[in-house]
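Ticket closed. Logging final result for Response regulator transcription factor.
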Amino acid sequence: MFQDLGALYGALDKAHPAVVLFDYDGNIGELEELLQFLKGTKSAVMAMNSSPVYSDGILLLKEGARALLNTYASANNINQAVKAVVGGNIWLYPEFIQMMIRQNSMMAAQRQEALDPLSARERELAEMVALGMSNKEIAQTADITEQTVKTHLKTVYEKLGVASRLELAIMVNNARR
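Final structure:
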């Protein structure tokens, strides 16, 4: 156990442990610094906090943390986490996983809602744009004129607040996910 990062860094320079368990209660900055220090090494960081915050967890995962645990995790959970991390996996506490699922569901619903202003026909044409079809191909497939395709797409752009075919395609493809 180390009381400051300097002593920890000195020890890590001498020994290269497979796993470093770091309790970052009150100081996420120190953990971010440690993650940067260990980037490119074979040491994996398991982050612990007595009051874990979802947004901190997301940040730490992006920075390279391999496990997120509550400081009060049982010995069994800590052992599971160590085994997972040593095996090259990520281990997350159950409440974090539940929050990720909720966030993903909310984001999916929001992406779907982005296309709600469109009529069924406008959505159909927007889907064809997202598939990379030209106006001519859309006109042939939808059995309408190219001018009608252009008119519909102008309305779609206005309703969705996009300025280009590419933006529309990205929005539609994101809504599909």
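The mean pLDDT is 89. No further action required.
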